[in-house]
Design a protein that fits this description.
Elements lengths: L1 H13 L8 E5 L3 H7 L4 H22 L3 E8 L7 H17 L1 H6 L3 E5 L7 H13 L7 E8 L1 H17 L10 H5 L12 E4 L18 E4 L9 H13 L7 E2 L5 E2 L1
Parallel strand pairs: 1-2, 1-5, 2-4, 3-4, 5-6
Antiparallel strand pairs: 7-8
Helix pairs in contact: 1-9, 2-3, 3-4, 4-6
Length: 258
Amino acid sequence: MSESLSTVRSEILDVPRERQPHHIAVIMDGNGRWAEAQGLPRIEGHRRGVASVRRTVEECARLGIEQLTLYCLSSENWKRPRGELDFLMRLLEQYMIEERAMILAQNIQASVIGRREGIPANALREMDRTVDLSAENTGLRLCLAINYGGRAELVDAVRRIAREVLQGDLAADEIDERVIAARLYTAGMPEPDLLIRTAGEMRISNFLLWQISYAELWVTEAFWPEFDEPHLHQAIRDFAMRDRRFGGLRGSCGQTLR
């Protein structure tokens, strides 16, 4: 298995950089359904999902992917049972503590996007510590979307712009896509090239609504706890074969025509 993985890695690394995704975003779906299919409590699915997170982070770092954004907890997830939410918060805190050494050792820069309201103080403290300690790292940029919602992000950006206009710091006719993008949680980050979703669901679930305008979508039937290096490799290989037109047409010489 390790030899096979090594061979595939070499093949992917040989793909021209312009055909590789620079930023991969992942909707990690199916933890609960995986657990139920195994006759286990739903929380066991979340626990097993952490192992998939580690595999994916480490493999993206090996492959030289610039950024990986993981949809960890959506703003809609607060509707789940209290016991499951409490477990998720403890798991988040535990992840930030236990994975910190790996993040630092592999030169990974961690960041978190989303609203902080509702997240327990202990989890926030460990999140902030991991982000601060890895701030100067120069390898893979790992962005964790926690208590995140794409619509909420846009609302927060609009509110910020409105305040700037009212204060006279920004003129209404200066508002354009660049101004909006600079006020999103993801300001300064590249837009995703590839959006992966597990568990076979064909929807984007309020994730990075602005940022994935031109992302290539790749869906697998595998539940998140089952997602491993071969799944990631296949997604990247399929991406390399896509003809990305960004809303234009492909000309006879390969250039994009708007």
